[in-house]
Automatic annotation (TrEMBL):
The chain crosses the membrane at residues 36-53, 65-84, 96-115, 135-165. The keyword Transmembrane helix applies. It comes from the Bacteria. The keyword Chloroplast does not apply. This is ATP-binding protein. InterPro entries: HATPase_C_sf, HATPase_dom, Sensor_HK_TwoCompSys. It holds the Pfam family HATPase_c. Residues 319-409 form the Histidine kinase/HSP90-like ATPase domain. One of its GO terms (biological process) is phosphorelay signal transduction system.
Length: 416
């Protein structure tokens, strides 16, 4: 992997790069996908083990190669799916699940190749009952339209193949076998589609709630500041001017004027001091900056114990948000890949001493050695910003065809 780095890193930022027992607050879509993938993968393993006796029994009617090949095609990727659901990112889970769905259909196609007509002395071949596994894998990997198409094609394939191997071909037998295979599988398909839709709705509503909360907090802060200034003007400035217009100068009036001037000076000092964001406000601000570019980019948060102690100057948050937004815009402009969607995610990791934001896509990627210094999006808007930020650092990693990862790090100096 090739990397370009802005070298200035705050002392506390380095700790963010180590391993931690982080609490993952990934989007609901990702969490549901992982749980479904783990359940489907484990179910495939269990069903494969439970069918071993029947596979061995029906292997007597087929060449020696047929049963091992079809068993590996039908079940081989399900343990991989279970492991991927624990360890890998959602795009990889979808790929493994897609492979499992396609492999099951390949196993069904291989059945007539290895077996003769009506050669299986049983009510059905063992693959006939495994269609729900393939449909579950398809529903996890693909959009609903493609999954429904898979359901119809798979049901027709297993019904025709089962009749070819076990019974006489009639209209009644075909329709009955098709209805049985499709009915149960359709129920499983509906369950997965409903779970994914509900998770997507939760993410949309959470993002909207976060946006509304941020707007409400900003409005409340403006109202509070406006009320504070109004009270100062009324209680101090206007009162002093009114007393001055009604009486001759006196020591009491002079002291009142001095107090008013001191309060005005204090307000100026407070206004000049940088605002400071806590951990939750910083995350809300960063999420909003990404979703202003594209609301479809997933934003996950991970926290270390003590993250509530983080205090981040607003200027640093603005710089980090600007660099992150530029990374998102660059990805939308340059990372597109023909014939497939590009997955874009942001992972924000927070500790008491700093914050790390990782923007990643699985798009086209590029060779960073071919990027000239006058490529402003990377050299100025991302790395340059982070280089000028005290305690900040930026890294860009990419290879052609491997996607791009932009890492932005800020570490506090202990002043906040």
């Amino acid at each position: 992997m090739i990397a370009v780095a802005a070298p200035r890193v705050g002392a506390r930022a380095a700790g963010l790069l180590g391993r931690a027992d982080a609490h993952d607050q990934a989007p609901a879509v990702d969490r549901v996908m992982r749980r479904l993938g783990l359940s489907i993968g484990a179910g495939g393993v269990i069903m494969g083990l439970a069918d071993v006796p029947e596979i061995a029994e029906q292997a007597r009617f087929a060449p020696a190669w047929w049963s091992p090949v079809t068993a590996v095609l039908a079940f081989g990727l399900f343990p991989v799916l279970a492991i991927a659901s624990i360890r890998l990112r959602p795009s990889m889970i979808r790929r493994v699940s897609s492979g499992a769905a396609v492999a099951y259909l390949a196993a069904v196609v291989a059945m007539p190749v290895g077996l003769d007509t009506h050669s299986v002395g049983a009510g059905s071949v063992w693959l006939y009952r495994m269609l729900p596994l393939g449909v579950l894998a398809a529903a996890l990997a693909w959009p609903i339209v493609v999954s429904v198409g898979y359901l119809v094609i798979g049901s027709a394939a297993v019904a025709l193949t089962n009749i070819y191997l076990t019974e006489e071909f009639t209209a009644l037998s075909v329709s009955s076998a098709f209805a049985r295979s499709m009915g149960l599988s359709a129920l499983f398909l509906w369950c997965v589609v409903s779970a994914r839709s509900a998770a997507a709705r939760v993410d949309r509503e959470s993002a909207e709630a976060g946006r509304q909360a941020a707007e409400a907090a900003a409005a409340a802060a403006r109202d509070a500041e406006r009320s504070r200034f109004a009270a100062l003007i009324h209680d101090a400035v206007l009162s002093t001017l009114l007393d001055a217009s009604r009486a001759q100068p006196s020591d009491v009036l002079r002291r009142q004027a001095e107090r008013t001037l001191r309060r005005l000076d204090e307000i100026r000092v407070e206004s000049a001091a940088p605002d400071v964001l806590d951990a939750r406000a910083a995350v809300t601000f960063l999420r909003a900056s990404v979703h202003e570019v594209n609301a479809g980019i997933r934003f996950a948060t991970r926290t270390w114990p003590g993250f509530d102690d983080l205090r981040m100057p607003a200027a640093a948050a603005h710089t980090l948000a600007a660099a992150l937004a530029e990374a998102a815009r660059n990805s939308l402009r340059h990372a597109s890949v023909p014939d497939r969607p590009v997955t874009r995610t942001v992972t924000c990791t927070i500790s008491a001493g700093g914050i790390r934001v990782v923007f990643a896509d699985d798009g086209a990627g590029f060779d960073v050695d071919t990027i000239s210094a006058d490529r402003l999006g990377i050299s100025v808007s991302i790395l340059g910003r982070m280089r000028r930020l005290a305690g900040g650092a930026g890294f860009v990693e990419s290879q052609p065809g491997e996607g791009t990862t932009v890492t932005l790090v800020w570490g506090g100096d202990g002043a906040h």
